[in-house]
Each structure stands twice: as structure tokens, then as C-alpha cells.
Design goal:
By secondary structure, the chain is α+β, with helices and mostly antiparallel strands. The protein is built from 16 helices and 15 strands. It starts with a helix and ends with a strand.
């Protein structure tokens, strides 16, 4: 008996060591694989962000080219500077109508005179010693020798946006065209690019000036200067505020600037060493400390602008769970099964203990598997439910209905989507599909369900109603928002035609889908976002 009792602990120790060693090796391999995957994910996101940023800057450049053409036509028709000065105000209104909020005023140096579109008398500029030839926009244009140049931007605390100047030296080597732009499209792009919970994106130029940020307070600060410089900027902003009379408009602007400087100084202090590591090692994903949080950072360098991506470790691991969680679960299942087979040879007491441990492990695996299954129920492109998950959820809704309950199943299909793919390519087509999904999610309640079935086909389940006018209004709102949002983003327009059917307790999902599809077929006859119901 003594010999036998000594063998049991010995066997347990051997098995425990084996289990530990295998898990450590697997954990190491998983960590290497996950790190490689994170590098690839962040590199792709950086490339995409640079590509989209290039599109925004190209739009700005195209706008300036339009302005330059209009202004040159004005010069050719009326070379007198006094006439041009009056015409600039008319041109100002034309450009504002074309460019909207992006545009912020035009000016030029022509025949050694400063001409501008504002109503401010020139005497006010003369009284301050203002010489356009001394301004950065003029000097940058001269140095550019005919190239379109962007003057380093700055934050306008009066209007809460980043302001820059585009200028160009004309062929006569004396005339300079210029106008101010609000770089709000970059801020909009930053908001659209965010994919992870609490993710931060910062876009900055060659001087380190932040021109786009998920944290608006960071706009206009200098990212590359370091924590000491950020603290100095904070002290200067606070001193400027204290020098003004409290409650005045100037004091309010200074107060906002001081608050923004304080937020950025805190951010720079929290990540002093880690952020510098990222700035010194572009194109390399690194895990750094940002205050009490661990975040993965990646710097995507560009020719003129850099993009810094910061994603909390937990958010990134949750989004990439399929890379490390499923292999780990399979290994755990194999180990648990093997150990359970071996322990069957042991005595009843040891076997019972093994069952307890197995049950605990199984519970953890079930929780982890449920999390993995939930991730597998999401459509990769749009983030909505996929077809399988949507059908299962609708069937559960039907099973839980009372006799008096009802809902509406809506099938939607894009109109002329093939034309978008043919004319613009599948990448633009995917962006249009993602936009359609965003508009659908934004127009339904949290109790409702939405899914991308496949291609440009979607489905919606509206709970607690049997009124088709409710469904028709939702579809109408989706199409209206698609039209306005696609125009704002300079994307090809798409509408969604829809067919609807009422859902009651005991309904069959397959039959419901057929009826809704038949109504959709009728609605698509017009190919303009039509709606029909059973």
C-alpha cells in the first residue's frame, strides 16, 4: 500500500509537469504567432489609412487647382488690381458654395499688392506691420517654384478646427495665389478609420503638428517635441489665459487652448518613453505603456504625413482571438482528454478528483468557446450578423413570441450595385456595402436585428410591430441617409429596395424569407429604393 500511495503523487507530478511544459510551449508559440498577426493587421491598417489620407489631400489639391483656374481667368479678363480685389469677394462666394465648410477665404499677391476677399480694411494690416512677403505661405510658395504647397497648419480655437494655407507661385515668378482651408475632412477620416474599442489615431505633418486625432484636444499640438515641450506649451497657454480678463471672448478661447494643452501634456507624460519608441521605429508594432494601460502602437510613415495608431491590448486581443484562442482550446481539449484516459487507471478517489478538475476546465472551455462562437457569428466586412446568426436569432424571437406579438422581416437588395463594381472596382464596392450597413444599423433600435446575407443583400427584423408603414419609413430613412452620406464622402450612390412580411408566433423562417423575397422582387422593378410587402 505504501508503495502504491507513493506512485500516485509521483504520477500526478509527472502529468502535471507535462501539462505545464506543453502549455508553456504552446503559449510561447501562440504569443509569437499573435505578435506576427498584430504586426500584419496594424501594417494593413496603416497602409489603408495612408491611402485614404492621400485621397483627402488630393481633394484639397484639386480644390486649389479649381481656385487657381478661376483666379487666372479673372486676371486674364481684368488685369487691374482694383478690379480683381472686388472680384475676389465674388470668387469667395463661388468657392464657398462649391467647397462648403472646407473653404475659408482667398488672397493673393499681384503686382506687389496684397489682395484678399475679406471686408477688413487694408489699413488694419498696415498698422500691424503685416507684409505678405514675410508670411510663411508666401515664402513656401516661392520656395516651391510653381508646386502647390501646404503651409504648416495650426489650431483655430475660435472655430475648433485645424487651419492650413495652400499657395502656389505663378509662372510670372511674382504672383502668388493662396487660400485657407479647414482640414476637417482629415478629422472625419480619423473617426471613420477607428475599428477597435478605445483606439486612438493621430495624423501629424513633417513638423510634428497633429492635424487629425480621435482626441480633438490634441489637435494643433506637436507630437514629436516630447513631454517637456508639451509641459512648456501648457504653462504658456495658462499664462496667456491668466493675463486676460475672465469672461471675455478672448479669455474663453485662451481657456479652451489651455485645457487642450493640459490634455495633450498629460497624454505625452503618460507615454513619454513608449511613444518615443514608436516614433523612432516606424512600421514596427510595439507594446508600450500609456499610463496604466498597455497598448499596441504602430507608426505608418508617409511622404508628407505620418499616422500613429494606438490600440489597447485587450481590444486587439479580443478582435484577433481566432488566431490564438482556437488553437489553444484545441490543445487544451486534447490534453484534457489524454489525461482523463490515463487517470482512468487510477483508484476511485483519484478518478473522482480528476472529474472535478475536468468539469472546471470544461466550464472554462465552454465560456471561451461561446466567445469564439460569438465572434464567428459576425460578418467580416460590415460587422453585422452573418446569415446563419441572423436566422438563428430570428427563429429564437419567433419561439419566444406570445400569441399577440408580431414583428416584420425585411429583405433588402442594392440597386445597380453591379454597375458600381464594374465602374469603380470591388474595393469601392466593399466601401459602399460597409456604408449601407452603417446606415442600416443607425436607423434601427437595439431590440431589432440586422444582417448582411451576402453581396449587397441585407435583412432586418423589426420587433414589436405589425405596421408596414413603420418598416417603409425605416427603409426610406436608410435610403435618404445613404444618398446624403455617400455624397458627403464622394462615394457612388446606392439605394436599397426592400420587401417585407409580418412575423407571428409559429412562423417558419424559410417560408417568411420566400414571401419577403417575392415582395422584394416586386419592389426592385423600379430599381430606385422601392418598398413592397406581402
Amino acid at each position: 500500500m505504501k508503495a502504491s500511495s507513493r506512485k500516485v503523487p509521483h504520477r500526478q507530478l509527472v502529468l502535471g509537469l507535462f501539462f505545464l511544459i506543453v502549455n508553456l510551449m504552446a503559449g510561447r508559440l501562440n504569443a509569437v504567432q499573435e505578435t506576427r498577426h498584430i504586426q500584419q493587421v496594424l501594417a494593413r491598417r496603416g497602409e489603408l489609412a495612408q491611402e485614404k489620407l492621400g485621397g483627402v489631400m488630393a481633394d484639397y489639391t484639386h480644390s486649389f487647382q479649381l481656385f487657381a483656374q478661376l483666379l487666372q481667368q479673372t486676371l486674364d479678363a481684368h488685369p487691374d488690381p482694383d478690379v480683381i480685389w472686388d472680384d475676389l469677394k465674388t470668387l469667395d462666394r463661388k468657392l464657398a458654395a462649391i467647397e462648403g465648410d472646407t473653404f475659408d477665404g482667398v488672397y493673393m499677391v499681384y503686382q506687389d499688392r496684397y489682395l484678399y476677399s475679406w471686408d477688413t480694411p487694408y489699413s488694419q494690416y498696415e498698422s500691424t506691420g503685416y507684409r505678405p512677403q514675410d508670411r510663411p505661405w508666401y515664402q513656401d510658395a516661392v520656395q516651391g517654384q510653381g508646386a502647390i504647397v501646404f503651409t504648416p497648419p495650426y489650431m483655430s480655437y475660435a472655430n475648433h478646427y485645424i487651419l492650413s494655407t495652400i499657395s502656389q507661385l505663378q509662372p510670372d515668378q511674382e504672383t502668388v495665389f493662396a487660400y485657407d482651408i479647414k482640414m476637417g475632412n482629415i478629422q472625419q477620416l480619423v473617426r471613420e478609420l477607428g475599428s477597435y474599442d478605445q483606439e486612438q489615431l493621430l495624423v501629424y505633418d513633417a513638423n510634428g503638428t497633429i492635424i487629425g486625432s480621435t482626441e480633438e484636444a490634441y489637435l494643433g499640438s506637436t507630437l514629436t517635441a516630447g513631454a517637456a515641450a508639451a509641459q512648456t506649451a501648457l504653462q504658456q497657454a495658462q499664462a496667456a489665459m491668466e493675463a486676460l480678463e475672465e469672461g471675455t471672448e478672448a479669455w474663453q478661447k485662451a481657456k479652451e487652448q489651455a485645457e487642450a494643452a493640459e490634455a495633450f501634456a498629460q497624454f505625452r507624460r503618460q507615454g513619454e518613453h513608449g511613444l518615443q519608441t514608436l516614433l523612432d521605429q516606424p512600421r514596427k508594432a510595439s507594446l508600450i505603456k500609456l499610463g496604466s494601460r498597455q497598448v499596441y502602437g504602430y507608426l505608418s510613415p508617409g511622404e508628407d504625413y505620418q499616422i500613429l495608431i494606438l490600440v489597447p491590448l485587450g481590444s486587439l486581443l479580443g478582435a484577433t482571438a481566432q488566431v490564438w484562442l482556437l488553437p489553444f482550446l484545441v490543445l487544451e481539449l486534447i490534453l484534457v482528454y489524454g489525461l482523463s484516459r490515463i487517470r482512468k487507471e487510477w483508484n476511485t478517489r483519484e478518478l473522482q478528483q480528476a472529474y472535478v478538475e475536468l468539469g472546471q476546465t470544461q466550464k472554462r472551455l465552454e465560456i471561451a468557446l461561446k466567445a469564439a462562437q460569438k465572434a464567428a457569428a459576425i460578418d467580416d466586412l460590415t460587422g453585422t450578423m452573418n446569415f446563419k446568426s441572423f436566422r438563428q436569432n430570428v427563429m429564437e424571437q419567433i419561439q419566444n413570441m406570445q400569441e399577440t406579438d408580431a414583428g416584420i422581416l425585411i429583405m433588402l437588395d442594392g440597386d445597380h450595385f453591379k454597375t458600381i463594381n464594374d465602374n469603380y472596382g470591388h474595393q469601392v464596392g466593399d466601401e459602399v456595402i460597409k456604408l449601407a450597413a452603417q446606415m442600416i444599423i443607425g436607423r434601427i433600435r437595439t431590440v431589432d436585428l440586422a444582417s448582411r446575407l451576402h453581396g449587397d443583400e441585407f435583412a432586418i427584423f423589426i420587433a414589436n410591430t405589425q405596421d408596414y408603414t413603420v418598416a417603409q419609413k425605416i427603409v426610406g430613412d436608410i435610403n435618404a441617409s445613404l444618398v446624403s452620406e455617400s455624397a458627403r464622402r464622394h462615394m457612388p450612390n446606392i439605394t436599397l429596395s426592400a420587401g417585407a412580411v409580418i412575423v407571428r408566433r409559429g412562423s417558419n423562417y424559410t417560408q417568411l424569407a420566400k414571401v419577403a423575397d417575392a415582395a422584394l422582387y416586386e419592389a426592385k422593378s423600379s430599381h430606385d429604393g422601392g418598398f413592397a410587402h406581402a
